Amino acid sequence: MGMTITEKILASHAGKDVVEAGEIIDARLDLTLANDITAPLSLEEFDKVGAKKVFDSEKVVFVLDHFTPNKDIPSAENCKLIREFSRKYGITHVYDGGACGIEHALLPEEGLVVPGDVVIGADSHTCTYGALGAFSTGVGSTDLTYGMVTGRNWFKVPESIKFHCYGKWQRWVTGKDLVLYVIGMIGVDGALYASMEYTGEAISALSMDSRFAIANMAIEAGAKNGIFKVDEKTLAYVKDRVQRPYTVFESDDDAKYREIFEIDAGKIGLKVACPSLPSNVKDVEELKGIHVDQVVIGSCTNGRLEDLAMAAEILRGKKVASDTRCIVIPATPKIYLEAMRRGYLETFVEARCIVSPPTCGPCLGGHMGILAKGEKAIATTNRNFVGRMGHPESEVYLAGPAVAAASAVKGSISHPLEVA
Amino acid sequence: MKLKGRVWKFGDNIDTDVIIPARYLASTDPRVLGEHCMEPLNPTFAKKVKTGDIIVGGANFGCGSSREHAPIAISALGIPLIISKSFARIFYRNAFNKGLALLEADIVNEVDEGEEIEVDVTTGVIKLKTREVIAKPIPPFMVELINEGGLINYLRKKLEDHQ
Ligand code: SF4
What we know:
The structure holds two protein chains of two kinds.
Chain A (H helix, E strand, L loop, with lengths): L4 H9 L10 E5 L2 E5 L3 H10 L11 E4 L9 H17 L3 E3 L7 H7 L8 E4 L13 E4 L2 H10 L1 E5 L3 E7 L8 H12 L8 E5 L1 H4 L3 H9 L8 E4 L3 H8 L19 E6 L6 E3 L7 E3 L10 E4 L1 H4 L2 H11 L9 E4 L4 H9 L2 H7 L3 E2 L20 E4 L15 E5 L1 H10 L10
Parallel strand pairs in A: 2-3, 2-5, 3-4, 5-6, 8-9, 8-11, 9-10, 14-15, 14-17, 15-16, 17-18
Antiparallel strand pairs in A: 1-7, 12-13, 12-18
Helix pairs in contact in A: 2-5, 6-8, 11-13, 11-14
Chain B lengths: L1 E8 L6 H4 L10 H6 L9 H4 L5 E4 L11 H8 L4 E4 L4 H9 L3 E4 L11 E5 L4 E3 L4 E3 L5 H8 L2 H13 L1
Parallel strand pairs in B: 1-2, 2-3, 3-4
Antiparallel strand pairs in B: 1-5, 5-6, 6-7
Bound molecules: iron/sulfur cluster.
């Protein structure tokens, strides 16, 4: 019996030739990640267990992206704690101040994750790096402490579900629409404990930015990881960024899957997830006219260059509707710079958008765009749970960048064709 | 381990944003986190809950973020156990790592809010008004981990042996 890409990566890190779904393994880690919310708990435990060092000071990453630039005194204290810890233990990869970007956009861009890696992060969207053909998954702070100290952790090998996509994409449709479609189809626990593997010609046709968005939202279907086949686009992406050698793994033809879905890309239109579950998915046409008080274009799902390019194309020469705020958040300093060079930021400011520094900000209701009671937002983020962006009685709709930008112009949920 | 407690009922897909909203995550103090537990769904929950009470939920309890603040907030209120139809995977790991017991059983439609139930966490036997339900067994690996006193104790011992 053959193995899936996920099984092969896990086997190689557990020092085994073969692993099977359901098996518990002890695996070597290539990288661990924590942010300004989750690291403090980990560091408390690090001290409690009496650890003297981290397993490898170049493989432990901290990104201070959630409540930064610090929104209040407690969050400033948390960041200070992480900086002090990093100095004490010689941690090389600490992203802070102007070097900081949203972690899951930043790590691949900085070349810190390579195909074939096993990565854990104390953040549920760590599954994003599956776009590079790596196994990466979110854990809690305690599991992270264990990983930071020992360079290992235990995993239950997940079953795999295959999403095979064929056909041609429609105009404006991106990876976000596919992943919303999939979550709408299988539900928020449709891939509980499993691996979501994407293959097929329509997937090869997608940009890396779109693949990151898809892998990012694997957790929204309850999955352990999302994963993609490594192709020329993946190799081109890692070529200029990555220093470490890497191994490319590929699923065998006779690998075992719990389920296989065949998806015709041509049938997928622009999708929106309605409050208050990411699986509450409708076509944008069904929601036209719903007023939005705020639009957020950013996050580890859709704050990359392709997303900003699409939003700029729609917003160029137009203005955000007068009773709507639009916040644009380039996910990393590099994306910010490139968006500036290409004139996107100018377009956004001229259209009366607010351009924010890279931060998680409003995505988790942290700061920089909190909703009041009864307000509605459409966002390119990944979660729309009750109270996610502010008041428990505010509501969030999730969409891709084209729908978000068009909705900003109209002041209500809109298809890009309506503002063209 | 045998427990007896009053039931607090919750539905499907109880996510970590309602267990503890992100705006409170700048704190790692269990007391502060406990005060805001379940606030978006039930603002008086933290005040009314008593030590020993048990949460009963539906499918996919604990979905969403990896924040360990979620099981910490629940434990801080003195809740020793959650019984739910199923759990999100990161929450499942975190709860056991933090010493909060979880049992998988679909009983939410068979219990009333405030009703007292008796549970043997070791055997998974749950005594309801009309019948007994046996929860899905906790995976042997998890039991081993609990017997070691959780992941952090296990790590501490490992480091002590080493030094
Ligand atoms: S952008 Fe949102 S989902 Fe992504 S890491 Fe930040 S808070 Fe989490």
